[in-house]
Amino acid sequence: MKKQFDLQLIAVFGGGLLFNFLFWMERLALNLLLYSLFIFIVLFVDKATPKSKIMFFAAGSHLLAALLVVYNQSDLTIISYYFSLCIFIGFVHMQQLRSIFTALLAAFLQLFTGPINLVKKLISVKVGSFSLKPILRPIKYIIIPIIVLIFFSILYSIANPVFAKYLELISTNIGNFISSIFTFIFGDLSVLRFMHIVLGILFTAGIIIKFKDDGLEKAELTLEEKMIRKKRNAKKFSFGYELTAIFAGKLMKKNMALKTENIIGIISFAALNLLILSLNIIDVSTLWLGNASSIQTVNYSAELHEGTNALIMSIVLAMLVIIYFFSGNLNFFSRNKTIRILAYVWIFQNAFLVSSVLLRDYNYVAMHGLTYKRIGVLVFLILCTIGLITVYIKVAQQKTLFFLFKTNGFVWYCLLLVAGFVNWDVFIVNYNINNRNNIALDLDHLLDMSDKTLPLLDKNRELLKKYVSKSSYANRYVYTEVDTDTTAIAQVKTPIDTAKLNLENKIRQMKAFDDDLDERIEQFNKQYLKTSWLSWNYRDWQTREYCTKSSQVSYNNPN
């Protein structure tokens, strides 16, 4: 056991140095995959870590997320990477967990307690007669007072400007003193890089050294997916029961509770069904059966966002209401057929509401093109549909709230990983260019995309020049007619002069567009050359290859 512990410490400090080597002044790309492979080797070699199916699932999904960063580097894939890493950490150290959300909580505990667990490990280290315990043990006596002192110092500096001035002077002098000592001992190693190494050590410790408390596992093990009928305690009622009792009064007696809940539920679901039915009828008449001319005049931007907001409230409330009524023994009540049917109808009507918002989103995209917000609406609709399906299963098969969290968490996690396969920036630009004849092409929006779209923009350079007059470039060179009686200005206002000025402005706009695009390509090439192989990713390499070939073609064919 002592040997195992020593190997963990070596891995932690070695991981800190590797962390610094991989990530210092580098972009997040191939280095993330290499760091994950290091973590895999350490944890899979560790004999104290059980090898289970859940561990292999978490490791496989995290490896996929790391590969997607290398293949399709973007903010989305990086977010997926860190989510999958946290899920991997949670499932590796607490392998009895079943929910994605609980695994994320476990990962937070692991990372948050990493420094404490590292200090505990170091305290128990003995090399012959030498022990770090006398050196590290006093830390626990001073760490909390230091935190409290810093906290109140900040508060007092905010309250008193004079105190803040002296505090800044003192902290600056202390910082300079520490920096000079640090430079004297470590030479060329900067304080920031040293702190980066410390961060790597603490982060690696949070991943490798297990948090010993298994209270989270025990708490989740008490949760069941299948609902079990329980006898209600006459002396102990739930919050929901007490809330209903406020309105039901004396009707909420022990022998009348289920019957009363059933009647209240029937009335509630009937009213809610009528309410959402009126909304769906309006959608059918104005959206689904609307003619082509009316579609052109609809403000889809307002309707889409309003519909989405209504959908959010409707779906959340639908789930909460159904969970409330079907969270207890009402599931086993012999006369609950009517309330079940009403709940199913309400779920179906909410599903129709989802389809109505989907149609609005489709029409909006067909008229104005793709954007991240419109794709986000589509993603949310998918999540709502999944939520409605799981709520239906909960009611039909008498499942618990834990079942909803577990199932939805797993599906959401899979969707997050799947979304990383798509190069969304290129997909949006390519779609909008290919459908330019059917949509109002927004050139400014296309130019706001990442450098991954540079090859696509450069290939369609001449085509995009046609849209500069409808972009922000039009505001750079504006011909304004001034109402005056002078002869010179009157000559400028002649049709011939106006046409000439408009032509000159258009030429300037197109040249500005060319210059900006060329400058972006040049800046990308400079940034690419500054990074090392640790920042390599396929999409940037693909863009770099195109830019290199394009510059060679331009050099060989200057005209």
Please characterize this protein's 3D structure.
The chain is an all-alpha fold and 559 residues long. The chain is 74% helix and 1% strand. It is built from 25 helices and two strands. The protein has a two-stranded antiparallel sheet with strand order 1-2.
Please name the defining characteristics of this protein:
559 residues, mainly alpha, two-stranded antiparallel sheet, 25 helices, disordered N terminus
Structural class determined from secondary elements: mainly alpha
**Helix and strand sequence:** HHHHHHEEHHHHHHHHHHHHHHHHHHH
Rg calculated over all Cα atoms:
32 Å
Given the structure, what is the number of helices? 25
Low-confidence runs of at least 5 consecutive residues: 1-5, 252-256, 481-495
Strand content: under 5%
Please summarize the sheet with the most strands: 2 strands, antiparallel
